[in-house]
Amino acid sequence: MPLDIKPIPVLSDNYAWLLTTPKGERAIVDPGEAGPILDEIGDGRLDMILLTHHHADHTAGTEALRERYGAQVYGPRQNQERLPRLDHAVEDGDVVSLGNTQIQVLSTPGHAAGHVSYVVAEVPALFCGDVLFSLGCGRLLEGTAQELFDSLHRYDSLPDSMLVCAGHEYTRSNLAFALHVDPENVALKARAGGVERLLEAGRPTLPVTLGVERRTNPFLLAPDVATFARLRREKDTF
Ligand code: ZN
Ligand code: FE
């Protein structure tokens, strides 16, 4: 039995991601609020809290979960003064362990200073916070287009089978924008119906594979940083 991965909807459109090993060890990524996670775990255990960046919609549940379960908190060393207190400050290239599961840290700035992503190769799964969304990418809140473009391309060496576990359910508006800027994309058009059905049913559109995103996400398809920057500006007012 491999690692189990489950999106937990929190706040209005965030996902916290719950990881459970076959032995029952658990980690939560980006707990933007505690309530839905407490409901899910109940009297179970929580070993680890992984933070991608300091924005409150990814961190505000941290202290309540630490207090209830004694979980160890991991987050980026860079910018850590704006994060909840970290038990383990991490940086690019670090590997942390949940039981026998190894979790690799990638530095991915551009949306937020110090933003990191977590890769679990054994699934494989990518916890990318607000860097990559299904059919979209994060806003340039504390970085440049070049930084976010480079961060998205840190994922280039990851396999097509990698599950993208992003921090928000933004797929509805991202799909509309993608169809607007790339109307002739056959793979995108083929995907639209399935995405619509999930949204109609109120079900998460995530995770999705990186392979599918590579063929349909306009921000991953952008050939150069100038095109990427123009798309990002257009999306901001779409
Ligand atoms: Zn954010
Ligand atoms: Fe966010």
Task: Summarize the structure in words.
By secondary structure, the protein is α/β, with parallel strands linked by helices. It has one domain (4-236): 4-Layer Sandwich (Metallo-beta-lactamase, Chain A). Helix content is 32%, strand content 25%. The strands form three sheets. Strands 1-2-3-4-5-6 form a six-stranded mixed beta sheet, covered by helices on one side. It has a six-stranded mixed beta sheet with strand order 7-8-9-10-13-14. A hairpin with a 2-residue loop joins strand 7 (95-98) and strand 8. Helix 5 packs antiparallel against helix 6 (186-200). The radius of gyration is 17 Å and the shape is globular. Bound molecules: zinc ion and fe (iii) ion. Zinc ion (ZN) binds next to loops.
Summarize this entry quickly:
It is built from nine helices and 14 strands. It is α/β, with parallel strands linked by helices. The protein has a single domain, classed as Metallo-beta-lactamase, Chain A (4-Layer Sandwich), CATH 3.60.15.10.
Counted up, domains total 1
The ligands bound in this entry are: zinc ion, fe (iii) ion
CATH topology: Metallo-beta-lactamase, Chain A
How many strands appear in the DSSP assignment? 14
Approximately how much beta-strand content do the residues carry?
A: 25-35%
Multimer state? single chain
Radius of gyration: 17 Å
Major sheet strand order: 1-2-3-4-5-6
The helix-strand sequence is EEEHEHHEEEEEEEEHEHHEHHH
Uncertain stretches of 5 or more adjacent residues: none
Mean pLDDT: 97
**What is the top-level CATH class?**
Alpha Beta
Profile the largest sheet: 6 strands, mixed
In the CATH classification, which architecture applies?
4-Layer Sandwich
| Class from secondary-structure proportions | alpha/beta
Helical stretch tally: 9
